[in-house]
């Protein structure tokens, strides 16, 4: 009851500090269900232990005329052993089963009958670069996604290791040099969702924030066309400037160099990843090959 009451209290006032408890997509909802289950199961252990602690301190306190039996040679109780080992083992087993089930379910697209969109994410000092390999555009410090569509975020880093997290959409995933990590997310309603880097990466760490803007599909593709027609291309020279440690605002680019993302992973040791080829053509084709591994 205490755990459920605490969860209810948190859910009743989901401000910025409790965004993870107010998900807007299937991935976030599954993870919230796992959090609630964990609270309930741990409450089954913690609440009785605390109640017994209070009871024992009161019941067996020393007092005048105490006639409690004195058993200095008492050493074990099989009944108590079964209780305090058996119950936690059962609880850990239940929690482990549902954690494993949820974890492996979330490595697949949230919707199997809808074509996903791939966004290649590179964490830099101290900014985020989002590349859309199929739309052939890029943005810095914000991403736009269509609602109701699975998003395949493919993550790497061209700076110290970081962690990509959009609390209202789902859990976090690390960005690491030489690695291409995958995170499926989906937003089922329009809105602007806060995201940030969850790893300390130097003095500009506090500015490693970004927004994920979810729009209906028609508005998303209209935005893509506006970026293509009104923005400058992302060149390798501009990317070299982005790699320099700095804090900047948001921007967008009308095109991306071929194989920029895959080349970044390869240059940082990604050639040792199974399926990561020194791609020919666009980075999206190579990453599709790698994502099947």
Automatic annotation (TrEMBL):
Question: What keywords appear on the UniProt entry?
Answer: Cell membrane, Electron transport, Membrane, Oxidoreductase, Respiratory chain, Signal, Transmembrane, Transmembrane helix, Transport
* Organism the protein comes from: Ferroacidibacillus organovorans
The molecular function terms of the Gene Ontology recorded here are: copper ion binding; cytochrome-c oxidase activity; oxidoreductase activity, acting on diphenols and related substances as donors, oxygen as acceptor
Q: What is the lineage of its organism?
A: Bacteria, Bacillati, Bacillota, Bacilli, Bacillales
Q: What is its EC number?
A: 1.10.3.-
Entry-linked Gene3D superfamilies: 1.10.287.90, Cupredoxins - blue copper proteins (2.60.40.420)
What is the official name of this protein in its record? Quinol oxidase subunit 2
Is the Transmembrane keyword given for this protein?
yes
- Which Gene Ontology BP terms does the record give? ATP synthesis coupled electron transport
């Amino acid at each position: 009851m205490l755990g459920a009451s605490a969860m209810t209290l948190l859910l009743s006032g989901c401000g910025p500090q409790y965004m993870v408890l107010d998900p807007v997509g299937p991935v976030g909802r599954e993870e919230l269900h796992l959090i609630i289950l964990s609270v309930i199961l741990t409450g089954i252990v913690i609440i009785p232990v605390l109640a017994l602690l209070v009871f024992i301190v009161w019941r067996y306190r020393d007092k005048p005329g105490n006639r409690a039996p004195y058993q200095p040679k008492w050493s074990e109780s099989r009944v108590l052993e079964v209780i305090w080992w058996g119950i936690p083992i059962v609880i850990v087993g239940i929690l482990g089963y549902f954690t494993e089930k949820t974890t492996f379910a979330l490595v697949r697209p949230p919707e199997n009958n809808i074509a996903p969109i791939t966004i290649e994410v590179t964490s830099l000092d101290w900014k985020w670069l989002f590349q859309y390999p199929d739309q052939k555009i890029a943005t810095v410090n914000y991403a736009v996604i269509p609602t109701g569509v699975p998003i395949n975020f493919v993550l790497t880093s061209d700076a110290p290791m970081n962690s990509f997290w959009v609390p209202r959409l789902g859990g976090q995933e690390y960005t690491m040099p030489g690695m291409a990590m995958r995170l499926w997310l989906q937003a089922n309603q329009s809105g602007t969702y806060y995201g940030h880097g969850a790893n300390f990466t130097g003095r500009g760490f506090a500015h490693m924030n970004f927004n994920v803007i979810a729009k209906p599909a028609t508005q998303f593709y209209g935005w893509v066309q506006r970026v293509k027609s009104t923005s400058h291309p992302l060149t390798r020279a501009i990317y070299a400037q982005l790699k320099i440690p700095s804090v900047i605002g948001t921007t967008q680019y009308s095109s991306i160099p071929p194989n920029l993302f895959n080349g970044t992973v390869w240059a940082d040791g990604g050639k040792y990843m199974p399926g990561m080829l020194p791609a020919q053509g666009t980075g999206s084709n190579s990453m599709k090959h790698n994502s099947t591994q």
